Amino acid sequence: MTETMPARLAHFPIAFYAMLMGLLGFAIVWLRADSIVAVPHIIGLGILAFAGLAFLAVTTLYILKFLRHRDAVLAELNHPVKRNFFATFSITLILISIALMHLAPGISLGFWVVGSALQLVFLLYVMSIWINHTSFQIQHMNPAWFIPVVGNIIVPIGGVFHGFVEISWFYFSIGLIFWIVLLGIIFYRVIFHDPLPERLVPTLFILIAPPAVGFLSYMVLTGHLDAFARILVYAAFFFTLLLFTQIGLFSRIKFFLSWWAYSFPMAAMTLAAMVLYEHTGLHAHHVLAIGLLVIFTLIIIGLIYRTALAIWRNEICVPE
């Protein structure tokens, strides 16, 4: 028997903000796509408008969930895996800020300040739990643990634009250091312990995000393509290539909302390829950027279709 809408609201996951990260990343990519292909700016603006409407819808529903099913929200916050997705809310605010930097600087600044502050608060909260935990097991570790870290690395993209250079270096340093720490732990977990649960397999794509976003932020902070920038971007390219070789693994899993973990890392990788081409002018980098733009666009179209189908079939917002 199909659950009523009020009952399904209790199962509305915070992970929906990962979808918004992907949509906003898609908008930012297309707003910048004219650097590699001749496309009208209106495409990016249209995608941004759609992402904005999705943000309002998701935020409204999650506020209603908090008001009517507070225990369910607290259960997500106390879950060793799901709590990491609360950082997707602050990251979403930061991405809105980035998307609006040149369109509405004042509004962009407001989103950046709130998003960055929430990101730091949540990171301190999560790290406090890491330090004082009594129940973590290695099986709880998965690439979703990168999410609170990636949010810090994103901050400089908007921070430098708004004049907060030193604060941006602060966030960048935190994100970069803990990316390296978590990377070792995650590879230890993947190699020496049980495979990831099917629902979490798509989160492997999050491995792409820290070096790709790190490259974008580092370029904003320094303004030039040096050795360290190349290390970051080519590490991101390698992770992308590695995960593309695992297409057989990803094609076998059934649809979960976690499929949206494919989206934001691919947005970051596509933007990184665009920025790399802008600085090198190499034909190979141009082809790479266009190829990633096409692949990313197809991924987003597929995700939107599959998510709409899952909503139609009542496969989302149900007990796990």
List keywords for this structure.
320 residues; mainly alpha; Glycosyltransferase; 13 helices; 71% helix; globular; SLAC1/Mae1/Ssu1/TehA; Tellurite resistance protein
Structure description:
With 320 residues, this protein is an all-alpha fold. It has a single domain, classed as Glycosyltransferase (Alpha/alpha barrel), CATH 1.50.10.150. Helices cover 71% and strands 0% of the residues. The mean pLDDT is 93. GO terms for molecular function: monoatomic cation efflux transmembrane transporter activity. It comes from Ectothiorhodosinus mongolicus. The chain crosses the membrane at residues 12-30, 42-64, 85-103, 109-131, 143-164, 170-188, 200-221, 227-244, 256-277, 283-305.
Layout of strands and helices, then pairs:
Elements: H1 5-9, H2 16-32, H3 41-68, H4 70-78, H5 87-99, H6 105-132, H7 147-159, H8 165-192, H9 209-222, H10 227-244, H11 247-252, H12 263-280, H13 283-312
Short structural summary:
One of its GO terms (cellular component) is plasma membrane. The chain has 13 helices and no strands.
Q: What value does the Rg take, in angstroms? A: 19 Å
Question: Per CATH, which architecture?
Answer: Alpha/alpha barrel
Would you state the CATH class?
A: Mainly Alpha
On the 0 to 100 scale, the average pLDDT is 93
How many separate helices?
A: 13
Distance between the termini: 16 Å
* CATH topology grouping: Glycosyltransferase
Tell me the name of the CATH homologous superfamily: Voltage-dependent anion channel
Number of DSSP strands? 0
Assembly state of the chains shown: single chain
Overall form:
globular
Outline the biggest β-sheet.
Answer: none
What percentage of the residues does DSSP assign to strands (E)? under 5%
Low-confidence stretches: none
